[in-house]
Amino acid sequence: GPLLKITNLSKRYDGNKIALKNITLEIQPKEFVVIIGPSGAGKSTLIRCLNQLVKPSEGEIIFDGEDISKAKGKKLRQLRGKIGMIFQHYNLISRTNVLKNVLNGKLGSVPFWVSTFGLYSQEDRLQAYNLLKTVGLQDSLYQQAKDLSGGQMQRVGICRALMQEPSLILADEPIASLDPKSSEVVMDYLKKVTEERDLTCIVNLHQVEVAKKYATRIIGVREGEIVFDGTSEELSEDI
Ligand code: ADP
Ligand code: ADP
């Protein structure tokens, strides 16, 4: 069955116009979905509803067979543990080294003292190292995050998300702060690692050409509604 089943999802922020209108959508395992649309269309709101960073006003979100929109406490933490997040501004700890930033992906799945005192197991360290190697950062393990380029920071962000061993990756404008060359490197890695691990990926982008290059499915959003849902080939230029 589908990995995500979204039914009649709506979001209205306090005192504001409606950001999402009655979205119904199914996403299958291993899809690489790109959501495109102009600024203010509702892309971020949709992504944030999926992991409950934003509480939907109405609707249901079944993730991996469970209703994440109703989940609370331990159940919500457990479901969120299966969702890796990638952010526009990377959200790394700037004065912490690359390896520890990646190990932070384990937060919540290790006892608090392990993360507090950096007492990660050799196995976890090896996993983090191997992830960093797949994105070409094996020589930057002990550099502080703040000393990296934007493209390098986002590659660390990808590794941190993968460290959770998620089944779903959500990336909210992952390349919006990067130059075209770094954007290509980051998208190439994101596509490669998610394919290799059979992960499902949902990425917000505003560049149609980039969406067409990587997506197995493109969803166009405008004013809180889905205006297109199809393959790159089906997407006409006029969206
Ligand atoms: P996009 O990601 O496509 O740029 P957003 O989901 O950020 O769109 O925003 C959709 C709409 O919701 C916009 O009108 C935006 O101003 C509004 N919005 C987003 N976040 C908030 C918020 N925290 N409070 C109030 N309104 C918001
Ligand atoms: P983006 O283009 O990535 O959506 P924005 O500048 O629109 O970035 O939003 C940045 C932050 O401000 C987000 O956390 C968003 O939820 C919030 N936000 C956006 N629009 C509004 C709004 N109208 N009122 C309150 N908060 C908003």
UniProtKB/TrEMBL annotation:
> Which Pfam family is one of this chain's hits?
ABC_tran
* Classification via InterPro entries: AAA+_ATPase, ABC_transporter-like_ATP-bd, ABC_transporter-like_CS, ABC_transpr_PhnC, MetN_ABC_transporter-like, P-loop_NTPase
Keyword Membrane listed? The answer is yes
Q: Which domain of life is it from?
A: Bacteria
* Alphabetically ordered keywords of this record: ATP-binding, Cell membrane, Membrane, Nucleotide-binding, Phosphonate transport, Translocase, Transport
| GO CC list | membrane
- Name all ABC transporter domain ranges: 4-239
User: What terms describe the molecular function in GO for this protein?
Assistant: ABC-type phosphonate transporter activity; ATP binding; ATP hydrolysis activity
PANTHER family registered for this protein in UniProt: AMINO ACID IMPORT ATP-BINDING PROTEIN, PHOSPHONATES IMPORT ATP-BINDING PROTEIN PHNC
Name of protein = Phosphonate ABC transporter ATP-binding protein
Provenance organism: Vagococcus elongatus
